[in-house]
Amino acid sequence: MVDKNRLVAALLLKNDSSAHHCSWGQQLDKKVLHSIEIPELGNLHVPLAIEDVEKLKSIAEPAPHGNGLNVVLDPNLRKGWQVAGMRISGLFPKDSLQKTLGELCAKALLNLKLGWLLEDCDSNTVDAYIDKLVLYESGGHYKRHRHSELEQGICGVVILQIPVENGFNGGRLKIEHGSSTAHYEYHEGSNHCHFLTAFRSGCKHELEPIKSGWRVTLVINLVWRNAFDVAKIPQSVQLIPEILELLTEIRESVDPWFKRIHQTKHGKPVIEKTDCCDILHASEISSDVVEQLSELVNKTQISYNASHHRHEEFNNDLSFSPPFELKITNIARFHQRNLEWQQSADFDDGERKPCVTHGQHQKESIDMLVFLLENDYTLTDLTFFGLKGQDVRLARLLLGGNFLEVHLAILNHSRSQVPFGENPSFVAKLEHWVNSSNMLVPFKNVQINANQIVSDFKTKSQHRTHQEEIEEKNMNFPQFAYHQPVLVIWPKYQSFRIKCLYAFDVLLDELEHELQITSHQKAIENLRRIISVCRDEPLTVFLDSAGVPGERTCRLLRLCIFLRARQEGLDLLELMGMDFTNEDECEIDKEVRFEGIRSNEVALLVAELECQVTGWSACSGFVLKMISPVRLSSQLAYIICLADHLMDRYCSEGALKILDRVAYLLPKLNTSSISSLGQTDIDSYVNFVIECERDPKTASAQRVVCFTTLFPRLDSYQQCRLIVDLRRRIRFGGIHSCMQLYQQMCRALPSCDLHAPGPIKNVIVAVVSSFFQLGDPELILLLMNKICLKSTSSNQSAEENNLVDVLLLSHEIWELATSSDLGKTMLSNLVKAQTSSLLCMLDQLTIPRQEIVSAWHIRETELVVPNFKAKTSLLDNLSQLELTSDHSKLIRDARLALIVAWIDGLCQQLDRETPVVTPHPNDPLQLNVTEFLRTFIQMEKVHHQDGRQPIFVDFSRLFSKMCLTRLCKLILDLRQTESAASIDMRVIASCFNLCRDLSRQFVEGDIISFMKPSTELAVKIAKWLFWLGDEVVSERFAHKICTCVSLEEENLFVKEMISSSKLWSLTNSAPASLVAFHILLDRHIGYLKTVKEPVFSFEQPLAELPTYPEVEAFLRSSNEKMSYHKLASIFHARGFADDLTKLCLNNGWCSLKARAMGSTRSAWCEIIKTQDMHHANMQQFQAVQQELSKMLSLRENLGHKTLGGKGDAEKMSDFNTSNNCILFSSGKCEKKEPEIIVISD
């Protein structure tokens, strides 16, 4: 567990700097340098002879004391000699810098606790420069000091003590850092041994005087390239040593991320298996490991720089002369590769063990921490360049330590108002990733929990969190969306793993792009690392729902083939055969997942891998493991595709083994697995079996037997489809084993459920035809009984059985019906089945009476009734088939039988109907009667156009069982249909008879009572009857309308009908319509003649005002004027005047004028009778007389000619418009109960 408190303290500069591990030194066990070459002196052998040291002194300069330009040559402060490193032309052996010095510098950094500088294997962050060669003779020393260049990027100093003849005594080196002091005495063995001392920058060091002999040292400066950038970050840190302390503290706080070493049972250090290399802590490195490094380092580069420009640039700084350049990170890079190579396999006696399959998905947690930024940023501003305030310091400080990967992101989370950290189930997503190069990174589905948020920064930044309230349905607490900019870190060694988990496709893109520029071994190593992550995180890598199934596997297989990576290809095949489970799921819901062969392209590449890289013997076990019962249900087609590709590549052994394993496992699948097999799966398997049966070498009777066992367990549609497909193939193949297989399949088919949901209707005709071609009458009858069975079943919905419909509409079936007696028997059974199906459906419309009452109160969408559309469509389709078939007589007879069945079934349902119940507007029985009649009429129209004879059917028995409501609705529906038709059905005898029988049945009922609530309905019925033009119906209807009220009363039905211009125009349609209109017109004229001329009189004997007897007497008298004084106030008088005026007008007594007179306390009402009402009555009477005159004129004209022209209809329409108000107001005033005037005080 990372010490987050220690990390926060370090980032906030609150840590206590420790002086431990600031210096280190030891005697080297082996000889480092053999000789040193200086142009002026030649090759000086090591150990250095006294004579050679004297030569060195002769060309050396006095060693100064001080810093920078403030140096002095004072023997009391420093006594010694130095040779600038730039003057050294070479060290021998030639590979000393590449192997020995590189190892020593890396070892020094590790022991100074600065090993994290070597942990970035992708960049050169540390350079090593040979500064100078220093000589100290007897009495030589220097006082305590610290070089100024230690503040200019130097992170450490390495002093290599070179052996000198006779050695030296004294000269103890003292190094101080804070309160810590270390002493290093290397005089013993100084004549033949090398000694190494190293200390961090910022340490003060002092050399005590040399008592005797010579001390020669090679000084190497370790320069940290990032030092100058990092030095600008923390305002309270000004020196590079302090920055190193700070970053080292940060590195120590995240040290658990880097500790991956454990002891094996053999006592040898073994690197724990991860996706890539792990970094060794300095304290954990043994001498054996360091020695291995010296043997394996071969890419460390030293470049001798003799540039005089650079020498002149630093000639003022006597202590800075770097002629050699050492890239320490190259050692680190090879160090990482070595560890990674060890992690790629387990070791036992130097031999590699095969991969172990645990069968379960072992998910490892990702080391990742999140810091909430203190400022708000838009997506555009969220870059390292755009950071502000303390966020800049935090980001640059973490970037300074090259052991961490640093990114910016957006934390998104929707949750209730619970602070961070208080909710243990807190899970958030990180999106919009930006790397340290300010480039967008396509990481996907990265989730973190509350423990991964650093607490102190979480607290400081919580108030900056951007919240957006979300309206959640059925939620009792507020919800918020958090969009918080964050900084994310993880150890760099896990960057490869994180790329695999969250940007796998991008990683593959990079690998594929680098194939042409990187070495073959490097590409294979990267591929091995990727496959290792795939093994650890298969659910994340392979089963990504956002990608195309099998796409990533295809890319990995291509890489294995291109690189000829045999072992990696086998590892991938083994991984494809593994089963994965999610540890987060409970045991009950835990689902087994797998990769396997998920596409045809994967199958092709697996075959290509076998052919070009591995061979069948090496990969057969892994390939066959991909064939399991659970995989067959979803990958059968792809597995067969693999066998096909292997056969094409002449690997018949592999193809047949795959086929045999599939044949063995398929019959053993459970029902759900078999039902999930698709058409492609079954077809590919059957086709490959048949292809193998063509060749005796590849044929197998056992495969045929296995498929015969599997066939009855397949879906019904699949069985039917296979029967049809095999009939076509076997007809050309003539394979005996396949013919036997086909016959056994035909015998098994009638046992399946042919009426199961599915597209069986699309192949049922071909199935029946296949059985006829087989020529087995027993099988044909068995099949037909199975097809017709559901239609006669009384306990199932017959509408689901559309197989009979499809067969009846097939030309091929009608051809078979006329080809033999067996075909005629089949046709007869089909018609009987259709008739029974129709009656069964109609029987489902029967609703008990107690349920009908409540049924009308439910919504229309809740009415569940059989759908008769398919049955009516069958009639129409048979009609169309009759027009194009050579067997029209047979089809016509079948259609007539179905029409009669319709009528019989509808009559049975109407007999069961309760007469007192008014049908619902959406009554299913009514809707189906209408649809049936419309279909019949449409069929007859089509046949009339084709010149065919009509079908005469007696519909009267159907209409006789229908109530007036049903008959009326049926008339209106047919009228609406006919208004939009192109062919007049009156010219077709069968259609006219239908309409005539319907109309006669309607007018025989009590139509007056039925139509009384609505005169508009009466007009609509009249239009239908006038259009039909049947003499009996029209006259009967007119007589019933005219006699419904006495002659002295106004007949509203008649008035509405003669006012309809449309009805007038229909009198031309037939003589019977004109006669009926005459009857209606005579009835209206007779009524108009009874209207008498009104007589004027002021006397109103019907006036009743019991509350005001004086006023009542005045109204009944012939007096014209009176004054009424019994009123309390002027307001009382005004109210009385208004109410009296309205009362007389409403009761039709007489018109009068009433005015309030007087003052507030003395008021009366003046009442004067007028003749206004009489004048209005006279106007109405005159209008009636005018109408009577016109009606008489119209009657006279109709008596001589018919209304055949358009002008007559328009003339009558104008007459109707101008007299509409008269027709509706010319009646006698109805006698009303008088209103009683009540006036409140």
Automatic annotation (TrEMBL):
<protein>
    <recommendedName>
        <fullName>Prolyl 4-hydroxylase alpha subunit Fe(2+) 2OG dioxygenase domain-containing protein</fullName>
    </recommendedName>
</protein>
